[in-house]
Amino acid sequence: MIHAYSLVHDDMPCMDDDVLRRGKPPCHKQYDEATALLVGDALQTLAFQLLAEHRLNGHARFPHPNLPPQAREGANESLREFHVNDDAARQLEMVRLLALASGSRGMAGGQAIDLSSVGQSLTLPELEFMHIHKTGALIRAAVLLGAQCGSASAAQLDRLDHFGKLIGLAFQVVDDVLDCEADTATLGKTAGKDADNDKPTYVSLLGIQGARDMAQRLHREALETLDGFGEPAQRLRELADFIVLRKF
Amino acid sequence: MIHAYSLVHDDMPCMDDDVLRRGKPPCHKQYDEATALLVGDALQTLAFQLLAEHRLNGHARFPHPNLPPQAREGANESLREFHVNDDAARQLEMVRLLALASGSRGMAGGQAIDLSSVGQSLTLPELEFMHIHKTGALIRAAVLLGAQCGSASAAQLDRLDHFGKLIGLAFQVVDDVLDCEADTATLGKTAGKDADNDKPTYVSLLGIQGARDMAQRLHREALETLDGFGEPAQRLRELADFIVLRKF
Predict the structure, then answer these.
(1) Do A44 and B44 touch (CB under 8 A)?
(2) Residue A85: CB atoms within 10 Å
């Protein structure tokens, strides 16, 4: 939902002014700009609503926090009640992670840097800084939110976070390569748009082969980061493969 | 923050296209439309981040949810740990309330109804339905979020919710009266804009005196709803007074 809202707003005339998304007209073309603005706003809200409403592990709603103190102390003696509240602490942590990743120090901040970098010549570290925020933060959060539902140790969470950072960067490098290589029909969005808009890309900084090499290196490092996780991390490996090998 | 984000987006050209807010140029005039879009997006995120980060009752951060099971069972025996997790359940409930009030079934949905009602003739119940969503939901949520930090009973929460609904409606009725009566300098926003835009208002439906009477009636009912709350509700009474007696 956070990703979808960002695309709806990103395509609007005051941002990237795009007319094609997933092979179809974007929200502001299919409907109008005011609708696109409100749809994006409401999608963001819905993401946080879902995290706050959904009960982990199939638990029913936690007891109302405004129970009288006796009832709350009684609940304290019940392991089940504790687990319900333990889930609340996890869910709250997920709200926090998602907010950090998508707000001014994450995705929205990265978008702002992106807008202000049009026509600028960025160095590779500056380009990386932008993408770590703009697209990387949300991919990292997606990995960490999944991990919050399991029982990863602090050390494992650190490695999963590093994995998320690597595939987040790989995603952007591959995106820049595809933007040069693929045609509009395959991409489902306007090809060559970033170069036309004089936006700095990995291809403009490294050349097409340099960018391809960088994507392969990030892919390899990401898979190495998952060493020791065994079978449970198989879907994350497939995700890393998909991000680097995709054609659209 | 939710309120501020809604104003920033609402003033944009594709929505109300306003050039004055609190006596100053709105965000999209002071900066540009892309900045206003991102500022609104990031402000919404920051609201949920704050609710997830702030510790109620001055507690430190709750123990990391990914502690090994032994550590978690140990925590279960500690009343302090339980209270920390109890706070997490409350905070999660606050995230849920705020999301419900500001999303597609609250404020953002009300905005959509508002946009589609320009030039339409609404009945009084239709106008009320729109405002209960557009401005009322967030005012109700503000009252309920405050109540979540205290120890109100379920019956008391119901009355506080009703109070919030009444002052939310009163706010809008007074807004329509002021939009007709006051000048732009006093309001700090463009006066007479709703009437010019052929938007249905309480004044257009009830006349200026009918709208004033309605505001007085809602004010009285709101104060009656607080009967029995005594001194702790004094700030809510002052809020009801301010909403109805304000001149801007």
Answers:
(1) yes
(2) 29
pTM, rounded to two decimals: 0.83
- Amino acid sitting at position A123: T
Q: Reduced to 3 states, what is the DSSP secondary structure of residue B21?
A: strand
Q: CB-based contacts of A150: which residues, under 8 Å, 6+ apart? A: A232
Chain B CB contacts of A32 below 8 Å: 14
Q: Which residues of chain A does B148 touch, with a Cβ-Cβ cutoff of 8 Å?
A: 65-66
Query: Pick from A227, A222, A225, A224: which is nearest to A239 by CA?
Result: A222
Q: What pLDDT is stored for residue A88 in this prediction?
A: 87
CA A54 vs CA A43, B194, B202: distances in Å? 16, 40, 39
Give the chain A residue nearest B73 (alpha carbons).
A79
pLDDT digit string, tens, across residues A175-194: 999 988 877 667 677 766 66
- d(CA A12, CA B175) in angstroms, rounded, equals 31
CB of A60 within 8 Å of a chain B CB? The answer is no
Q: What is the pLDDT of residues A46-91, one digit of tens each?
A: 999 999 997 655 443 434 343 444 444 444 444 444 445 578 888 9
B179 contacts B246 by C-beta, under 8 angstroms: no
- For CA atoms A145, A146, A148, A152, the dihedral sign is negative
B1 CB within 8 Å of a chain A CB: no
| Alpha carbon distance B170, B136 (integer Å) | 9
CB-hemisphere CA count at 13 Å for B155?
A: 3
Q: Is B113 on the interface with A (CB under 8 A)?
A: no
**Any B CB within 8 A of A72 CB:** yes
Contacts of B93 in chain A (CB under 8 A): 52, 65
To the nearest 10 degrees (0 to 180), the angle between helices A33-53 and A79-102 is 150
Q: What is the number of CB-based contacts under 8 A between chain A and chain B?
A: 170
ipTM over the 0.85 cut-off: no
Phi-psi region of A23 (alpha: psi -120 to 50; beta: other; left: phi over 0): left
Name residue, tokens 């706010």. Answer: B171
The amino acid at B16: D
Positive or negative torsion for Cα A87, A88, A89, A92: positive
State which H helix or E strand residue B134 sits in.
Answer: none
